Amino acid sequence: MKRRRFVQGLFTVPAVMAIEPALMFAQRGGRGGAAPAPPPEFPYSTPDEVGRTVLSFFTPDQFRAMERLGEILMPAIDGDPGAAQTDAVEFLDFLLSVSRSEAQQLYRQGLDTLNDRARAGHGRLFADLETPDAEVLLEPLSRPWSYRPADPFERFLREARSALRTATENSPAFAQATGNTRSTRYLLPL
Amino acid sequence: MQSQDHDVLIIGSGASGGMAAYILTGMGIRCLMLEAGPPHTERTFQTMPTHELPFRGFGDPGKVPHVFQANEGNENQWASEREHPYTHDPTRPYNWVRVRMIGGKSNYWSRMSFRLSDYEFKARDFDGFGENWPIDHAELAPYYSRVEPIFRVTGRSEGFDQLPDGVFIERPAGGEGPAAQKLLGELARRGIPNTITRSSSGQNGQASSANLLIPSALDTGNLTIVPNAVVRELTVDRNTGLLNGATFVDRHSHRELHASARAVVLGASCLESTRILLNSGVANSSGVLGRYLLDQFYITQCLWAVMPEVMDGSAPDGYTQGGNGYIPRFRNLEPNENRNFLRGYALQWSLGGSPGRDYFSGWGEAQEREVARYRGAGFTATAMGEVLPRYENRVTIDPDVRDAWGIPALHFDCTYTDNEFNMAQDAITVMEDLADACGWETITRRPEMFPPGYSIHELGTCRMGDNPRTSVLNRWNQSHDVRNLFVVDGSSFVTGGYQNPTMTILSLSMRASEYLAEQMRTGEI
Question: What phi, psi does B106 have (nearest 5°)?
Fold first, then answer.
């Protein structure tokens, strides 16, 4: 009995489709049918609310140096969170992982230079320096601005200072903490 | 379905292609327009919290890395370099900025609307470098005078030889506050000219091919537009040696098709047109197709100075009012000025802006305090300089790289030289001198220019001339080699000047299209 129903099914399904294939799409509103009800609005969450960025770009030493750089260059000010409170470095790890090789090289070499100079001067990694000692290594940021500094370490520091600020201020955590949500007019794909 | 034959195949729907359609259809000629991009002419935005953007405002790093004007809000307006790759030596970058949609780049241009002068058309006569155009301003003036009213150019007639007046919606002088008056006084003392920017106001806030040209062409009933049609190459009738159409690829399905026509008008933008010609293997008996690539070098914010009297919010109301202007070329207008560069540059200046945070040293709260002190106290300018046409600056086909439709990509070999570098340095010096004279403190100088192409004014590579051995097109934008081929975009330029080129492109396309129509009427084509 069961087998006969199955065999009947094999033949009846194509027959129904031949008569009225639009029935298969009836939920979209077929000919003469009523307009479909608007879909319900679900309360979605964002990826940052449920997950942490899986790190892939910085080495552990580079990551810690970048975090320390964020604490100094983009600290919490007047109650607004800084780089450390907004996972800015985690986001930059992702961004650099999909960036051009020139940008990747600039950050890798810059962070390695920071650690090399910290070791040479203090026998420790940059992340482990006291703030006054760490700030001495950031002296190139006190030089007058130039479009493309000849010193790649200065170029790295300037890039990092700007990127840490953007990553901090455009983070979900910053928007939540300050209640000051920035918005962007986003041109939809053509 | 039976494919339709058309009188003229127009490739590209931007300023030049749109003007060709506007003229030709109006003269009763049936045109087919192929546009590589989608049919959108409106810009549809969605306001989003920046922290919800996929790249949090940084933009997708691999999408348009050469488009310095891009940000995550507008990055979809530019042609993605993933689909539209091109190559250059890593040490010699070129910023090729493209828009693919109905109306092309004319949907997004800055609307700066200037004429070239005989300092550009007859540049060789003046300084001995390069070649003259085969035409002069007087010959193109009647066409400028018809284009300007279509685009509703606003400006102020000044009588400058180096920046011919046009048919303007005149804007009266006046309205400058004390800071601008101080600057204008210093300019006058030095004999440096100044005017207001000449700009296309268009209609309903838009001045593009898509709203000023194509609708009229469609109204004639003589225009057929096919969007999403990526032209691979032009095709040649072996019996006559003339073009008989083009093969194109459907952007979505990648299906290849052929469209036929009696004549072809290439208006795909300077370098896309040249790429199509190079891939087609036509119109290059001179060997100069792809050569003499030029543009204008732009240095945005080439100098920042601050007005001490405006710092810390101390300026009276209206102090920086009317604080912008345009200084047309003022160098090398006389023979034997004995400078370390040929030709000249323009400066578009503004007062009352705020220098960006990156210009200030330090970090954290100390840097914030400095930024706040200088807010609204800035004086800056964009330098826009002429780039000499050089044989060595060129594009070729890269045999190893193809776009998403399998069409070979361009390879760029283009650099600026000391002439451009020295000119840029002169611009900085002039700006700093003006700032000093006004009592304003210079805080940054930037003589370094962006890579070639940054101004989005790529020109040349298919230049016009009277000599078929040294030029690709004749004085009518018509191929020397193939008489039913016209190239009407910026690729025909012999020199670029310092002026934004769109009015000249539109005028040349108008002129060439009327010539083509006459050739078709008389049976020459």
Answer: -65, -10
Cα atoms in the 13 Å half-sphere on the side-chain side of B411: 9
Is residue A102 a contact partner of residue A41, using CB atoms and an 8 Å limit?
Answer: no
Does B51 sit within 8 Å of A174, measured CB to CB? yes
Of A72, A95, A144, the CB nearest to B55: A95
pLDDT of amino acid A49: 83
CA A13, A18, A23: angle at the middle one, nearest 5?
A: 75
pLDDT digits (tens, 9 = 90+) for B442-476: 999 998 889 999 999 999 999 999 999 999 999 99
What is the Cα–Cα distance from B123 to B103, expressed in whole angstroms?
32
Instruction: Report how far residue B122's alpha carbon sits from residue B137's, in angstroms, rounded to the nearest whole number.
Output: 9
Reported ipTM: the value is: 0.85
Query: How many other CB atoms sit within 10 Å of the CB of residue B68?
Result: 15
Give how far the C-alpha of residue B241 lies from the chain's centroid of Cα atoms, to the nearest Å: 33
Structure tokens belonging to residue B67: 């488009």
Question: Which A-chain residues 6-45 have CB contacts (< 8 A) with chain B?
Answer: none
> B91 — contact with chain A (CB < 8 Å)?
no
In chain A, the residue whose alpha carbon lies closest to the alpha carbon of B46 is A186
Smallest Cβ–Cβ distance between B362 and the set A98, A142, A182 belongs to A142
Collect all residues with Cβ–Cβ distance below 8 Å to B70 and sequence separation of at least 6.
Answer: B59, B63, B64, B78
Tell me, yes or no, if A72 comes closer than 8 A to chain B by beta carbon.
Answer: yes
Q: Which pair of structure tokens corresponds to residue B37? A: 């991009």
Beta carbons of A185 and B361 less than 8 Å apart:
no
- Residues in contact with B136: Cβ distance below 8 Å, sequence separation at least 6, in sequence order: B118, B121, B122
**Does A17 score more than 50 pLDDT?**
no
Q: How many Cβ atoms are within 10 Å of B210's Cβ, its own excluded?
A: 22
CA–CA separation, B16 and B143 (whole Å): 13
The per-residue pLDDT for range B469-493, each reduced to its tens digit, is 999 999 999 999 999 999 999 999 9
Task: Give SS3 for B19.
Answer: helix
Report CB contact under 8 Å: B73, A186.
Answer: yes
Query: Encoding tokens for residue A115?
Result: 């650690």
| DSSP secondary structure code for residue B328 in this structure | -
Chain centroid, CA B265 distance in Å: 19
- Could you please report the per-residue DSSP string of A75-121? --BTTB--GGGTTHHHHHHHHHHTS-HHHHHHHHHHHHHHHHHHHHH
Q: Is the pLDDT assigned to residue B244 strictly greater than 70?
A: yes
Neighboring chain B residues of A167 at a CB cutoff of 8 Å: 56, 58
